[in-house]
User: Fold this.
Amino acid sequence: MHETLPVLLMTRPHAACARFVAELDRAGARFTPIMSPLFQIVQTEAHLPLDGVRGLIFSSVHGVAAWKARDLQFDMPCYIVGQATAQAAQAAGLRPAIVQPTAASLVKKMLDTGVEGPLLHLHGTHTRGDIARRLTFDGLYTRAVAVYDQPELELNETARAALVGDVPVVAPVFSPRTASLLAREKAKAPLLVAAMSEAVALALPPLHIVFLKVADRPDSGAMLAAVQETLDRAHAQMERSGASPDEG
Assistant:
């Protein structure tokens, strides 16, 4: 006899998937992981106009990685969206000056505290928040450069089989773009989604969703809690249907 567990469908790039699965394992969550990234990270060779720049903006760990890969030595403050990005920046030898959970709150904090420009935002080709435009509109000149691309990938056969199976599938979704890519897939299995934000949740239809949990905050800690709650809901659903024990 062995226990059938809910499927955890991870669609972020592999390294991020592995970190998140490890955190869930440490928290004692029970699931069958399937990793099938819906996009990959490819660094670009875009020129960085650094002359006169007095600070950098990072809204993802991938932007930090692209900066680190260029091996540039500039001692300047950086302004950051998200604790994970801040940790990556510190590990890369950068100096976080302001860290905020969202692009909107970062823009407000920077304007309120009198940050001096010009600034440079290093981001991906698919980005949200309009940080550079909003700062420049309010008088803090900021340029934006796409230092990495996020070409999409198709779900692998294992992931697609899970989505049309009978076992509940728990899908953590971290961005509106990932939500829109996932929404193109066919789903027959009971699908339970943990969304990073309301914006992510709005991008999900028309998936066959039986439960939706939006994280309390758009950060990794709140997302971890949301996924744990969603997994608990999947276990309860399986127990009610008598699907938890399986022969083997």
